[in-house]
Amino acid sequence: MSKEPVAVVGIGQTKHVSARRDVSIAGLVREAARRALDDAELTWADVDAVVIGKAPDFFEGVMMPELYLADALGAVGKPMLRVHTAGSVGGSTALVAASLVAARVHGTVLTLAFEKQSESNAMWGLSLPIPFQQPLLAGAGGFFAPHVRAYMRRSGAPDTIGSLVAYKDRRNALKNPYAHLHEHDITLEKVQASPMLWDPIRYSETCPSSDGACAMILTDRAGAARSPRPPAWMHGGAMRSEPTLFAGKDAVSPQAGKDCAADVYRQAGISDPRRDIDAVEMYVPFSWYEPMWLENLGFAAEGEGWKLTEAGATELDGDLPVNMSGGVLSTNPIGASGMIRFAEAALQVRGQAGEHQVDGARRALGHAYGGGSQFFSMWLVGAAPPQT
Amino acid sequence: MPEVLKAPLVVEFPFTRSLGPVQSAFLTGLRERVVLGVKTRDGRTLVPPVEYDPVTAEEIRDLVEVAPTGTVTTWAWNHEPRRDQPLDTPFAWVLVRLDGADTALLHALDAPGPDSVHTGMRVRVRWAQERAGAITDIACFEPYDGEPAEPAGHSGEFDDAVTGIVAAARLDYTYSPGRAQSAYINALSDRRTVGERCPSCRKVYVPPRGACPTCGVATSEQVEVGPGGTVTTFCVVNIKAKNLDIEVPYVYAHIALDGAGLALHGRIGGIPYDQVRMGLRVEPVWTEGARYPDHYRPTGEPDADYDTYKELP
Question: What InterPro entries does UniProt report for this protein, alphabetically (chain B) (predicted)?
Answer without folding.
Answer: ChsH2_C, ChsH2_Znr, NA-bd_OB-fold, Thioester_dehydratase-like
